[in-house]
Structure formats: C-alpha cells, structure tokens
Design brief:
- The protein is an alpha+beta fold and 87 residues long.
- 16% of the residues lie in helices and 13% in strands.
- A two-stranded antiparallel sheet has the order 1-2.
- A hairpin with a 2-residue loop joins β1 and β2.
Length: 87
Amino acid sequence: MAAWERERFVVHLPVVATDLAAALRFARSITRAVGFLSDIDRGETTVSAEDAQGVRHRVFCDRSYARGRRCPRPARHDGDCGAERHR
C-alpha cells in the first residue's frame, strides 16, 4: 500500500445516556469537538444501543452537497437543508 492510501475504520466509543435522544446530542457534541481533525468523517456518525449495535441511528443529515460536503444539521431535521443553526 502506498503511503498516501489509507483505509477507513470505525472507532466505537461507549457512552452512558438517559435515552437515544440524549445519546444523539452527546454524539453531536463529541463530533463537533473533534471536528478540527481532518480524518473525521462527521457525516457518517451513528449511534446504536450497546445490545443492538446492528441498528444504527444517523446523527447528522446525510444529504450530500458539492465537493463531498454534507448538510451539517441533525438527522431528520425540520425544514430545508443548509447552514447549521446554533441555539
């Protein structure tokens, strides 16, 4: 393998949350915190229950834009895709 070729991996990081919504919020926070790292594929972040890891819940919207970018809003958001709205 050439030095510029790289493989993709998934890092599993177990967390404790009160419910799926809280776990999704936590995943968004973690992903934003490490977003400065160029090797993070933020748009592919998912959450699953520990005993149902095959059932994954997308954290961010999966709509693709030009140049490999994705909608930065949460999955299943209301309204049009676009710039993220901070609350």
